[in-house]
């Protein structure tokens, strides 16, 4: 990237008209995308139009195409589905239908189209663009438009956003609606688990996904399902027997329930469908287990969008408008999407072709190719599921061979011993990470030890071995089942070293927040005087504050964002009844403004006060003035978020009193401190999967390092690269020595010196109608869809 920064003030929408439509199946988050397109379009000076009822509305014209204003999209953010309507349109497939649609657009001077839908909708849009000049000529010849209109509207620009709960579009890690659909599925699975447990039942759940097994696979990973059926990876012949054997083994392990998840498009190796009913009959016939079928159906499309989908859709909507403003006549139709946590633009037809190739591979029974073409994220999910769901027999474990054969790599007395502990405040998803670590560790042939109550428990010797079954059912549990404390190890270092010696601990996995990061630094510093600490160590970030250097995301932050967003929705609803009311809400995060800023974007806040962006009395005054103006419109409510440590003197009480005084006669105020509800609750699907995958990767790294550092009958590691933090950086998971991360850390305020999400703050301000500057240096490069190689080493973590 060049040093010259690029700001969007240089782009203008003056004289341009943009139309937005939603097409195909609805998906939660479509409204957030529509809202972002409308507001960003108006903000840059363009005219923006709604096209109601998808392509049907474009073909029919009339009142279906309406100019939108700022207030038209108020209160849309938290609504599921699409408020501008969607319809499948047979007429648009015929040239005559597209001719009518072109005529209706030209009449209004619309030459920029933003289409939110699946691959069918986007393919239709591309065809429309390719035919545009021919359609215009035909309209001129038939006298429906004049030459001048054809000349002024000679080029049609198209930008697509993928709205599809199936996540079946290649080139994008996540499509709008997928995360919300996973929320619906997991809510149902969590509810079913309690009743299944009571009656020792087996449940077969059918989820959506006619051609794509993403929802089935990820929900199976997120709830620890016993078996999953997806179209991309049919079970091998003889699966009936294998599945029944696994179910009965689980019951023998005192497991009171079984969950089997089936994608609606599940097939066997002969491409014949596998139905939920068939699986139920099979289980009843072979095992005699009390078995029930639940078909989730359209529940998965419904409900309010998750925080992730709102942020994704808002970012994509703004990016789509930028792409349209920057488009020139030769620019191909593109799709704006997410890769890791980076917004990217990809040629629309490259993505569509790759998506069609997946189906072709499945039809031709090239299932390995189908999985690879789905992308790194899908492949990684599948590999992690396989790793965690199938318990290996003792004879299959790596150390079984070591005991009988040559012992060149492994320790002389059998397996390595790996300890896992939670440090810092509890965060949802910690338990999923512990479960994953324990099971992957056992599969790798290690002895897995759990340390209770953090470093404090470590010093006291609260350490016990964990078996495969000990972590069953942990993925959906909130908080920390191992117990966690903020205590740092320095003052207990002698006792900790002694406990490591007593238990023969060869490696350490620390799952936690900033205290875990500091703790690892302290353990490292004590290596010189304590030999038992000279072992490989790895930290996995887990804190609601998302304030760990070296990682863009932490386990627990997504669950906290959903808690904040859900509460803000309810508060906004109460305000819409009373009118002229402003709510001031305090969020957690220490000095890190992630929750306040990203929560503000997801909840549609008017402002978010954070420590990283200093503010003074003039800023507060201008915010009050902004709200006084807002109260003159039809949107008579306000939402202000304040990070708990954003300012020593401008406290939540102070801001509440200031707003109350300055708003007298125009609006009244209420305040809410959200507190510890942000740390509680069942983990979101994102946190379950992020925790599961990142912990699995951490243990695999430890296995490799244990072999590297095994010399002369013992493990000895005292290099900087033997103590790492595993973090998500832009598009990949990266191991970084903690000593190197010191330079990136503000230790006084417990935050990284640079934080990626600060560049999302202007989006919140733009969507709340504030004039601001927005750095778009990272935008605008049209990338190409990368064809997956036979083995792709980089791992995508976005679920």
TrEMBL record:
Keyword terms: Allosteric enzyme, ATP-binding, Cytoplasm, Glycolysis, Kinase, Magnesium, Metal-binding, Nucleotide-binding, Transferase
UniProt: ATP binding residues: 25, 88-89, 118-121
Region ranges (C-terminal regulatory PFK domain 2): 417-799
Binding annotation for substrate: 164-166, 201, 208-210, 264, 292, 298-301
Binding site for Mg(2+): 119
Residues of the Phosphofructokinase domain: 18-323, 418-702
Needed co-factor(s): Mg(2+)
GO biological process terms on file: canonical glycolysis; fructose 1,6-bisphosphate metabolic process; fructose 6-phosphate metabolic process
Enzyme Commission number: 2.7.1.11
Annotated GO MF terms: 6-phosphofructokinase activity; AMP binding; ATP binding; fructose-6-phosphate binding; identical protein binding; metal ion binding; monosaccharide binding
Subcellular location: Cytoplasm
One Gene Ontology cellular component annotation held by this UniProt entry: 6-phosphofructokinase complex
Active site: 166 (proton acceptor)
Activity regulation annotation text: Allosterically activated by ADP, AMP, or fructose 2,6-bisphosphate, and allosterically inhibited by ATP or citrate.
Catalytic reaction annotation: beta-D-fructose 6-phosphate + ATP = beta-D-fructose 1,6-bisphosphate + ADP + H(+)
Recorded metabolic or biological pathway in which this protein acts: Carbohydrate degradation; glycolysis; D-glyceraldehyde 3-phosphate and glycerone phosphate from D-glucose: step 3/4
Top-level class of the enzyme under EC nomenclature: transferase
Binding site for beta-D-fructose 2,6-bisphosphate: 486, 543-547, 581, 588-590, 644, 670, 676-679, 750
Pfam families listed in its UniProt record: PFK (PF00365)
Ranges where the record places region N-terminal catalytic PFK domain 1: 1-390
Quaternary state and interactors: Homo- and heterotetramers.
Function: Catalyzes the phosphorylation of D-fructose 6-phosphate to fructose 1,6-bisphosphate by ATP, the first committing step of glycolysis.
Family to which this protein belongs: Belongs to the phosphofructokinase type A (PFKA) family. ATP-dependent PFK group I subfamily. Eukaryotic two domain clade 'E' sub-subfamily. Belongs to the phosphofructokinase type A (PFKA) family. ATP-dependent PFK group I subfamily. Eukaryotic two domain clade "E" sub-subfamily.
Protein's UniProt name: ATP-dependent 6-phosphofructokinase
Source species of the chain: Clupea harengus (Atlantic herring)
Organism ancestry: Eukaryota, Metazoa, Chordata, Craniata, Vertebrata
Designated gene of the protein: LOC105911136
